[in-house]
Structures are given as structure tokens and as C-alpha cells.
Fold this sequence. Notes:
CATH superfamily: TusA-like domain
Structural class: alpha+beta
Shape: globular
Oligomer: single chain
Distance between the termini: 17 Å
Strand order of the largest sheet: 1-2-4-3
Largest sheet: 4 strands, mixed
Amino acid sequence: MKVDKFLDAKSLACPMPIVRAKKAIQELEEGQILEVHTTDKGSKNDFAAWTKSTGHELIEVTEENDVIQFLIKKH
């Protein structure tokens, strides 16, 4: 899958990963993919709620070595 923008939000605490993701996704066109990496455990719930409320699609959530990776499709 082609990622159009990458956001490194590791070591940022809530709510900064979401704040940065909101800004980053505004720079994308509809249908493009944003990849976000974070280490904040609360991000899983935050990103699920944020994508649901904004209409963006949370394509995938993976976790590896304490880094949570999100793939979000802009709608």
C-alpha cells in the first residue's frame, strides 16, 4: 500500500498524536494514506474515535516493539 504522508509521533503524549495527525491529514487529498507511528498506548482508542468522528478510514493498526502504527485513509 502506498503511503502518501508519514507522521512520527513517537514519544508524544495525548493529545499531541491526534493534534499532529489532524494537521497532517489536512495536507492530503481525499483517498490518500497517512501513516502515523506513536508510542502512546492511549492512541489506539484515540485514533479509533477520531477516525470514526471525522469519517476517515482507519485501515490498519499494528504494534511492534512498543510502536503503534496506524494507516488512515482520508475521506
